[in-house]
Design goal:
By secondary structure, the protein is α+β, with helices and mostly antiparallel strands. The protein contains nine helices and eight strands. The protein has a five-stranded antiparallel sheet with strand order 1-7-2-5-8, with helices on one face. Strands 4-3-6 form a three-stranded antiparallel sheet, with no helix packed on it. A hairpin with a 2-residue loop joins β3 and β4. The protein is elongated, with a radius of gyration of 25 Å. About 2% of the residues have low confidence.
């Protein structure tokens, strides 16, 4: 089967029918749909019967059932049930394939994902579920945007390898993206209690990996970067007419201990916060 997909701006505009999450604690009836349904395993293990073939599934696996494909889940462990994400959609057409059809290699209905794809798909699943619970303006279009990303990631994994674009390094691009996300997070949450473990958990990456690529891209560790943000914010406050105490300013930029804050400030700028305040206000 030829898995090379040629997409243009007019090819891919699916209609979102539903998104949902379910715990597999009972078996569904053997059924089919008149639309495409993708089941993504968020956690646990189980089995799926699709067109007479039994598939073992685990976290990160995808089951793609186009219209008319009979399927149902099989409960294998009632004590640790499988958690599934479902999305139903229609009105799309990939070139070289029938309308409303996504084919996988080897004519299978099951796709195993690697670590990177699993992380990205999991984020998109929870983004769709969260959006589905809101009443924000443009909710449907946000769901469609997430779904298109979700589907394109699947299509890319399933497509034939493309020639490497000269001068383009995906690994470097991915690292830059991750580091940019971390910087944005630190800039926004600098006044909160932040740890490398918490950042890593939010991004589904290991603390060691995050620390490594952050230093490669910026030349310093995430914690040092955070310290600089906090101290620069503190300098702005100290230089203003704000009458708050040093302890209050320390708390405002994320430090519970005023002594520790003052020690860091002097280490980086050569003078204490109190002296810096007097100096900057005296020069006005």
């Amino acid at each position: 089967m030829d898995c090379r997909f040629d997409l243009t701006y007019h090819d891919f505009n699916p209609t979102v029918l539903f998104v949902s999450k379910s715990t597999m604690n009972r078996e569904s009836r053997y059924h089919d749909h008149d639309f495409t349904e993708i089941t993504y395993i968020l956690s646990g293990k189980g089995q799926y019967l699709v067109e007479g073939i039994t598939y073992n599934v685990k976290a990160g696996d995808l089951i793609i059932c186009n219209a008319g494909i009979h399927h149902h889940n099989i409960v294998t462990n009632e004590k640790e049930p499988t958690v599934e994400f479902f999305v139903g959609f229609t009105d799309y057409h990939l070139k070289e394939l029938p309308p409303n059809t996504i084919n996988l290699k080897d004519h299978s209905y099951l796709l195993h994902t690697d670590t990177e794809l699993r992380q990205n798909l999991t984020k998109l699943c929870y983004a769709m579920l969260a959006e589905n619970e809101t009443n924000q303006v443009g909710k449907y279009f946000m769901l469609k945007a997430y779904l298109i990303q979700f589907l394109l990631l699947i299509i890319r994994q399933n497509a034939e390898p493309q020639p490497k674009q000269e001068g383009y390094n995906f690994d470097t691009h991915y690292k830059s993206y991750v580091v940019n996300q971390i910087i944005t997070y630190l800039d926004t949450h600098y006044n909160e209690k932040i740890s490398l473990d918490r950042i890593a958990q939010n991004m589904y990456l290991s603390p060691v990996y995050i620390s490594k690529i952050f230093k490669e891209e910026t030349g310093e560790s995430p914690i040092n970067y955070l310290i600089k943000i906090r101290l620069e914010k503190a300098k702005d406050i100290l230089a203003s007419s704000n009458p708050d105490s040093i302890k209050k300013i320390a708390n405002d930029v994320g430090y519970e201990d005023a002594y520790h804050f003052s020690k860091l400030f002097k280490k980086y700028y050569g003078i204490s916060p109190l002296y810096y305040r007097k100096k900057t206000r005296h020069s006005e």
